[in-house]
Amino acid sequence: MTPPRTLTDLFFGATDRYLAHPVAMRVKRDGAWRQVGYQQVLDQVQGLSLGFRELGVRPGDRVAILSENRPEWAVTDYACLAAGAADVPIYPTLPPNQIEYILRDSGAVAIVVSTQSQLNKILEIRPALPGLRHVVSLEPVVKGADVLQFEALIARGNAARTKYPNWRADALKAVPDDLATLIYTSGTTGDPKGVMLTHGNIASNVVASMSVITLHPQRDECLSFLPLSHIFERMLGHYSMFHTGVIINYATSIDAVSAEMQELHPTIVASVPRLYEKIYARVLEGALSGSAIKKRIFFWAKRTAEEWAEYSLSHRPVPGGLAFKKRIADKLVFSKLQARTGGRLRIFVSGGAPLSAEIAKFFYAAGLPILEGYGLTETSPVIAVNTFDHLKIGTVGKPIPGVELTIAPDGEILTRGPHVMKGYYNKPEATAEAIDQGGWFHTGDIGIIDGDGFLKITDRKKDIIVTAGGKNIAPQPIENRVKTNKFIVNAVMLGDKRKFPIILVVPNLDNLRAWAIGKSLNFTDDQSLITLLEAGDKIEREVKKTLRDLAHFEMPKKVMLLVRDFSLESGELTPTLKVKRRVVERNYKVQIEALYAEGTGGAHDVEKTVY
């Protein structure tokens, strides 16, 4: 098989290979999982792409997609590519004003929307967008003036097939340097930038990534729930799965992932670390809340499995006695965790943010290995990834084939190769700042390459905390460690240019509430719970215990308790659930200033404040 050089090569190559297979995708409709075959996908892509051409969409035009993950998202993407248009994916969680900016900046001539609520956003801003000529709705029930129906547009394209006898040949005229998509980054400051990714950028990344991870056509199945608007899910859960013949199952929502893993029995799941953090926290909570014997069995199994993992990861023979104990641990403890993921899962993939080494080791020991990788929207996205042949926990793996990697004198990770974006749309200055004259893309991340060639990320260049005393602190590893504690859901460390660092902590209210009831403490609601002196002392002790191995200057001197978690609505999270440190700092500016104004109670004190 000749590797695809463009995304249209990829699409037609996959439909040619797998056309006889009945299932390309599944989606849950009216409570039942419905199959979508390769022939149906091919027919819809042809009809929709010709429908776009009948509307006047021309090669080089931009078509936006505002939708949750579903088969129609995939069809729309491939139809845009076949028509020579570049699509502009938009997160369905974005508010109208941010959508308006993206549509205006990209110059989108059409938009495909999913539900009535998404359509309402577009109807609100459409008068301000004269260049947006067409609105297409995926669902027949969606109503609005001058709104086209998805199925009707496909029918219009099918009726015009005789006008386009060379449809496939025309679609395959795309070349690697042609623009495939404009993906707007969710920057923490300023307006988002449109990342220009070409056919060659993404196709090369698919080919390189799939050369180091083996997937099996029709035997492997994935569960797609990260937003397709994000390049991680799009490259892996969309293009790579279709290219390799893996069945794509679209989760109904992120909240349904746990239940739908047990319904569908996927073999591949890609996620950001938050899913793994939640699973790990639930497992620990279940063990700690059980009987004394259950607790002893769990922690014996955990120690046994992690000792086994040390041998396995270092490719040393496992002693016979340890192998026997590991089989018992699997039967007593880990088989239950494997059953909760559907019983067939063989690959977890993690990206988008750093994964705690403690969590990664636990999952590996439990027989659910997480292959952590690294990349950015601007790099299509994969730069490096762990594989079964080359796996080192605490790193993001080795560079994939064709990707160059180097570390700048200041520690910044630089990369060069066919995966690097064409540039930022209409922003030549920003492009020149990101890609130097040697073609190296400056990632903004700090890292090292170890003696075995594995890349380890230490922090974001802009996130490094430099205290007033000149000490450099990488906050992400500290935050990740704190979040492994069963009493803590989220954490953000601050302190740049300050005398000392502080940490904002979101307690796990369920666990804290249960602890408080066990202590016969009186409280009326969550706000009164976290203002209890005893509760504050408890969280302080948990933070200190979790961070006991830190250097003195790294230890947060004060803990601020927050009653609510960070959210998309508050602007504190990106659509892929990464915390926007600067936004959090701005939202709690008054409280933070008051905290620093109090000073610190002593060289080794961790004080707490509640908000």
How would you portray this structure in words?
The structure is a single chain. This protein starts with 6 loop residues before the first helix and ends with a strand. It is of the alpha/beta class. The strands form six sheets. Strands 2-1-11-10-12-13-14-15-16 form a nine-stranded mixed β-sheet, sandwiched between helices. A five-stranded parallel β-sheet has the order 4-3-5-6-7, with helices on both faces. The protein has a four-stranded antiparallel β-sheet with strand order 17-18-20-21. 39% of the residues lie in helices and 20% in strands.
Key phrases:
single chain, 611 residues, alpha/beta, 9-stranded mixed beta sheet, 5-stranded parallel beta sheet, 21 helices
Layout of helices and strands:
Layout (H helix, E strand, L loop, with lengths): L6 H12 L6 E5 L2 E5 L1 H18 L6 E5 L4 H12 L3 E5 L5 H11 L3 E4 L2 H10 L8 E4 L9 E3 H10 L7 H5 L7 E6 L9 E5 H12 L10 E4 L6 H14 L2 E4 L6 H8 L3 E4 L1 H16 L3 H22 L6 H21 L6 E4 L6 H9 L4 E6 L6 E4 L12 E2 L4 E4 L4 E5 L6 E2 L3 H7 L6 E9 L5 E6 L4 E2 L5 E2 L1 H8 L5 E7 L7 E6 L1 H10 L7 H5 L2 H14 L11 E4 L19 H7 L1 H9 L9 E4 L1
Helix pairs in contact: 1-9, 2-3, 2-6, 4-5, 8-9, 12-13, 12-14
